[in-house]
Structure formats: structure tokens, C-alpha cells
Amino acid sequence: MALNPALIATTYEAIKPATMRTPTVHAARLSLHLNIDLYLKLENLQHTNAFKARGALAKLLTLTDAERKAGVIACSAGNHAQGVAYHANRLGIPAVIVMPEGTPFNKVKRTKDFGAEVVLHGTGFDDGVQFTHEMAAEKGMTFVHPFDDPIVAAGQGTVALEMLEQEPDLDVIVVPIGGGGLIAGMAVAAKSVKPDVQVIGAQAANFDAVKADFDDLGTNFGGSTLAEGIAVKSPAVANLAVIKSHVDRVETATEPEIEAAVFDLLSYEKIVAEGAAGAGLAVIEKHAADFQGKKVGLVVCGGNIDSRLLSTLILRGLVRDGRITRLTFEIDDTPGQLSDISRIIGEAGANVIEVIHQRMMQSVSLKQAELEIVIEARDQQHVAETVGQLRDAGFKVRADSDLG
Q1: Is 299 left (phi over 0), alpha (psi -120 to 50) or beta?
Q2: Cα–Cα distance between 5 and 240 in angstroms, integer?
């Protein structure tokens, strides 16, 4: 079976009754910030908070009665696992999900909550997939691949049909790429509806297998990535062929760019997005000059980001924007110094978050103390104004921003 517009159209009708038609919304603040016309397809609002539920449902609906009774098995630590588990449970199909050892407990729990049996094996997708195939053969279960399956890719392609129904005038659609199922399905669907629409892929620079194949370059696999949902070293060969024939170009984003983009989605648009979606926005931000005067669509492919990771990301974003910064003082160890500093900071309109008063460090003289104060300000300019007022009052102070 080949991925084609007819298959995607048939799949769309099949999954429509049990799939959320997620909104495509105008990103007013980001559009203003980037000076482009940006629209977001909010698949983070889909069942299980990711587009993967579409492809999983598409595959499950093609099973025979015997295959349904025998059950399905999948290998995933993230969105595909939950998509398969959710729809299998809804359809009364037994499901086993193979997850890497060390998968965070909350991901295991969410998958189990959807009624699936979870088996922990290996250290990643590549380690687990062979084991999953062997287990499928042993138990007589149907293996539901996260991206190397034309039916699954067709399910993901329905995202493009909805986007172009909701916003027919889109000039460009930017799609995150991991194993290639989403962009392959979306590119085939989009080009069948609107042949002149540009489809641009977005990858993490640390996992750029599709970019390397597309441009006939060597791959760069280096460490981990915030965009773990698209951290795939071996995309499907069939998807790569579709990408070469239907996608206009593939771009990459670095880890700092992806992190900043996830923060921007939250800060500007109040949208919680995972790293894969951040890679898409990072590519748009990086190449914003190319999109001037164009109507650009971005697939916010999922919102399953760990809450602790998100908390740290927010704080780092505030620091990066200068809205949280640390001031370091060398002060005379006499009464009233801290009171005076706090008063000046307050009068400047900034807020004190944390204070560390250190007398025992030998880097300062015996009659002095080192004082660290973390403040919240409007932006870097506000920090500079606050520091200026402190220095005008005679205090020796250094801001972290002075080091950059």
C-alpha cells in the first residue's frame, strides 16, 4: 500500500468521528514579534495531546476481527505509546507498549492509565524495536509502527487537510520531522489540495538524519535534545522518498534555539508545547526573513513536556530575557546596607526574589560582605536602569548581564 492522496482522504473520513478537529489559530503576538503572518495548528489539544493519536487510530481501524482480538503492540516512550493505548482501549483492543528502561514514571503511568500493558526494555527506540517485533511474533500481535507505515502516515497527513480547510491561503507549512511520518503524510495531502504551497521540514540539529538525506550531507548525531519526540536516527526509507519528492526544504535548529522557541510559544501565545514543536518555531524564527509577506502555518505537534523541565525552561527564559537577573554587591558589613539596597530596588520598580548575604568568603576583606540579590525586572533595559540607580547611590554592584 502506497501513501497517496486517496488513502489520506479515505483515512480522514475513517478517523474523523473519533478525532478532534483541532483549531488553527492566528498567532497575533508572535506574528507581530517576527513581522510575519503566523498560524498555529494546535495538535497539542488532540487526544493524548499530540498528533500521534491520528495515525494510531488509522492503523487500528484497519485491523481484522482476528487481529483486534489478538491485540496490538507498539514501541515508544512518548506520544505514539499514548495514542495507541488510548484508542486501543477505546476500541476494546488489548495493547502492549514497549518502553525504554528509565522512562519517566509519569509517562509509564499515563500509558497504563489508558489500559495498556507496559514492558520496559532497552535504552531507546532502536534498542526496543527488534525486541518488539520478536514479542509481536511470539504473541501473534500486530505491530503498530510509529512512522514506518503508510496507513499511520496517512493518519498524520489529515493534519494538513484540516489546516488547508481552516486556512486555505497558507503559503508555507512548517512541519517537525523525526521518523518522517507526519511530514510525508502532510506533504502529500497539502500538495494534492494546493500544489504551490511550500512544505518545510524542521529538525533538531542533533538528530538531522532527514536533513542529511535531503541535502546529501553527512549526519550530525550529538547528544540529547529537548525535541525528544523527533530524536530519530533512522527515518523510514519510504518516508524519505516522499520527502524528497514533495518537501521543498529541510532546516535544523540548535538546542538553544529550540529552548527559546518553546519559551516563546508559552510567553507570547500562552501555548504549552513540547520540544518537537519548538524545533518548528525555531526554524521559522531563524529564517523569518524568508517568510516576510507570506502566510505561514506551523504544526504545534504536541504538548507533552515534563512539568519540571518546563519549569526550568521558563526560569531560564526569564533569565535570558533579562526579566530575572542576579546582582552581586561588595558592601561594608554595617547595619542598614541591605535595607537601603532593597529600598532602591523597590523604588526602581523591580522585585527582590532571593537574597544571599555572605560574610565568610575570603574573596572580600574582613570588614566587608558579599551580597547576592536575585531580582525580577521588566527587561534588560529595566535591569540596567536599576543597576544605574544603585551605583548612583554609591553601591559597588555587578549584574550577571555585565558578564555577557
Answers
A1: beta
A2: 17
Cell numbers for 91, please give them: 476500541
Alpha helices in 92-180 (DSSP H): 105-113, 125-139, 150-166
172-176 and 198-204 strand pairing: parallel
Residue 144: is it exposed, middle or buried by C-beta count within 10 angstroms (0-12/13-18/19+)? buried
pLDDT score, position 404 = 44
Of the candidates 302, 269, 260, 54, which has an alpha carbon nearest to the alpha carbon of residue 175? 302
Q: Which residue has the cell 503508510?
A: 150
Instruction: Report which DSSP code applies to 50.
Output: B
Q: Identify the top-confidence range among 192-196, 233-237, 356-360.
A: 192-196
SS3 6: helix
CB count within 10 Å of CB 283 equals 27
**Residue 363, SS3 per DSSP:** coil
Cell matching residue 235: 527515518
| C-alpha cell belonging to residue 263 | 519559551
Return the C-alpha cell found at 137. 511474533
Contacts of 362 (CB under 8 A, 6+ apart): none
Read off the DSSP letter of residue 141: P
- pLDDT-based confidence at residue 403 (cuts at 50, 70, 90): very low
* Predicted confidence (pLDDT) per residue in 2-27, tens digit: 999 999 999 999 999 999 999 999 99
> pTM of the predicted model, to two decimals?
0.89
Alpha carbons 269 and 284: distance in angstroms, whole number: 15
First CA to last CA distance, the chain: 55
Cβ burial of 356 (10 Å; 0-12, 13-18, 19+) is: exposed
* Of residues 298, 211, 307, 226, the one with CA closest to residue 262: 226
Q: Burial letters for 210-248: b for 16+ Cβ neighbours within 10 Å, e otherwise? A: bbbbbeeeeeeeeeebbbbbbbbeebbebbbebbeebbe
DSSP single-letter state for residue 254: -
Pairing of strands 72-75, 95-99: parallel
